Amino acid sequence: MDSSQKKYLFVHVMKTGGTSLANIINANFDVNQRYPGNILENEENAFRHMEAYLYAPGILAAIQAQPEKYRIICAHVPYAIRALLPGDYITLSVLRDPITRTISYLKHCRRYHKEHMGLTLEEIYEDEWFNASFMTNYQTKLFSMTPQEVLAEVRYGSYEPALPARSELGDGENLTPEQVALAERGGGRFSMECFAASTGVITIDEHRFKRACENLHSTDLVGVTENYDRFLEQLVSQYNWNIDTIPHLHAGETENISRELLHRIEKDNAADIELHNLATSLAN
Q1: Positive or negative CA dihedral for 29, 33, 37, 42?
Q2: What gap in Å lies between CA 198 and CA 192, rounded to an integer?
Q3: Which residues 6+ apart lie within 8 Å of 152 measured at CB?
Q4: What domains appear along the chain, each with residue ranges and CATH number?
Q5: Is 172 within 8 Å of 47 (Cβ atoms)?
Q6: pLDDT per position as a tens digit, 182-232
Q7: What SS3 state is found at 48?
Q8: Which long-range contacts (CB under 8 A, 24 or more apart) does 42-47 make?
């Protein structure tokens, strides 16, 4: 296929350095060829922003409505969305050492989530919903989910008052006063649970791990954060992307992490450690 006709799906795993790819994507694809770039160009509604990056049914609907328009899709979605997209997409993804990825995510929670501000990293790690959804074997979950699980709006745990289905949210104007109060108390969980495919309900076993490995093998270009330059070099050599400068990967603030927390993260992410080892071998 002519390089100008190739289409790409970037499975953007949270906290792996994928945001640093944004300027490169912008330089290689016109705004109208990028999803969700053109949709969000003049969009100020926070619900629409979250939906565009996280809500798999909405992403698929947008692509299916104009299947020839988009040449690159960049979103926080599981790998299995690939099977649901119309046409052939070259699939790209970057994985990260699960211990450093989890520490980075904990810091992200403390920085941006109301319910986590002022807490220690250990206290945030004890948040059952966030731990199950985005900390424990998260990368393996993303690559092991089925297309049906990507689309299912199943929720882990419960809220009081109950969260409405995404189809009932509108642009946020349909929330009851109780739901608004809930969003203000726990904005991080509220927004992620309304839009993201539920990785919290996934339990990794031998069968799922095998599927994750098979899907990673099927990913056309795999990179790892620890050797990000290599990933960019392959974009140039294999797909003729134009990359003039290597983007800086934001390392976050330095912080002493307790040995106990590091040990627990390592123990809880045994599958992710193995999957990251596979990604490292594929990236070389």
Answers
A1: positive
A2: 9
A3: 197, 198
A4: 8-283 (3.40.50)
A5: yes
A6: 888 888 888 888 889 899 999 999 999 999 999 999 999 999 999 999 999
A7: helix
A8: 45/171, 45/172, 46/172, 46/191, 47/169, 47/170, 47/171, 47/172
Nearest of 131, 261, 137, 104 to residue 209 by alpha carbon: 137
Residue with the two structure tokens 């069968």: 207
Three-class DSSP category at 139: helix
By C-alpha distance, which of 22, 189, 226 is closest to 112?
Answer: 189
Q: Is the pTM of this model over 0.90?
A: yes
Give the Cα separation of 59 and 44 in Å (integer).
18
For residue range 127-160, list pLDDT tens digits in order: 999 999 999 999 999 999 999 999 998 888 887 7
Q: How far is CA 221 from CA 95, 234, 253, in A?
A: 11, 8, 30
Residue 76: Cβ within 10 Å count: 20
Taking residue 161's Cβ as centre, other Cβ atoms within 10 Å add up to 12
Instruction: Calculate ∠ Cα 194-156-211, nearest 5°.
Output: 100
Which one-letter amino acid corresponds to residue 176? T
Half-sphere exposure of 76 (CA within 13 A, CB side): 21
Rounded-to-integer distance, Cα 15 and Cα 108, Å: 9
Q: Assess contact for 88 and 9: CB atoms under 8 A.
A: no
Residues 6 or more apart whose Cβ sits within 8 Å of residue 184: 114
Task: Report CA-CA distances (Å) from 180 to 10, 56, 168, 271.
Answer: 33, 24, 14, 37
